[in-house]
Fold:
Amino acid sequence: MLKLKTFLLSIIIFSNVLFAKEFDQLFKVYTPINNSSEIEKSINNSFNIMIYRLSGSESPSNIWKIINAGNTRKDFIKSYSLRNIDGKSFLEVSFNKDYLVNVFNELSIPIIGNSRPVILFIFNVDSGTKNPYMLSNYDNNNDLDIKINDFLNQKSTSRGVFLELPELDLFYMNEIKNYEKLVNLKELVSSQYNYDLLSEINIIKIGPNRWSVTGDIKFDYEGDAFDSYFTNKLENFATKQIDNLLAGQKIDTSNIISVSATFMNIDNYQDYKNLKEIINGLVGVKSTNITKFDKESIYYDIEVYGNLLNFVYEISDSSYINIDSFDTSKSEIVMSLKS
Structure:
């Protein structure tokens, strides 16, 4: 029991692992490609993914609204090139942020900023062929493990969100095995990660062709196609959760305000360059204008879409900038570069 108390105390002391939420390659899309004859098809697929990401919706109506307004897919592309990633060929397509946002604005399509939700999944699997385990990014014990990991990666990329699996170190995993009836796995994972939504799903094989799924997805299944049936259920569940989370983050581009922004802790020219790149890369920023310099501070007038809170939310997950204070009544915000 003393060992268990020590284990639980260590969870509290070391529960400082955080997930970043800033989607820093929002306007860069990678699509699989077999040969150069498929470039046109891959560009079309990349464009669709880009619209899904920026609008927060997988509805094709936004795509057709943009095309029917006289735009072509290539109008939005800055560059594209073939890339080899882990031995597989991809088309890397970079899109023009400002042009996309302008067209979205003209067509009254809301946008989603760079800060994206994190959904953390706990999959507890008991296949009957090995000891029960919690699925990780590196598990490929069977086709189901591979399909779940592939789905999470594909869905994360296409929607511009973070669908993550917890990774606990060997110490924690051993203690969980030793005290599995005393340790609440969901509470343990909650203490280790920041997230917007935590889902726990239990997958148990209860017969030769029978499965029981409990937790946030519930069903019983009997047959030979469990893997496909389960991934379809997971697709529907994840899509609904993503849609709900993104619905609360939409920015109304028809509303534009001017924000007085102060950035402190600027030590050198490289800091200034990094800051400029970050600010201009934010979806919700329309334009920037430097009003003055101090010794270690830069003062901006920033035109932002939506309101100040939209800007605060979008920049709050930056790995480079701290928000020190803000005042919505005066549209003022003070920030500093992280040391």
In short: The two ends are 42 Å apart (CA to CA). Residues 1-20 have pLDDT under 50 and may be disordered. The longest strand covers residues 197-207. Residues 11 and 312 are 31 Å apart (CA to CA).
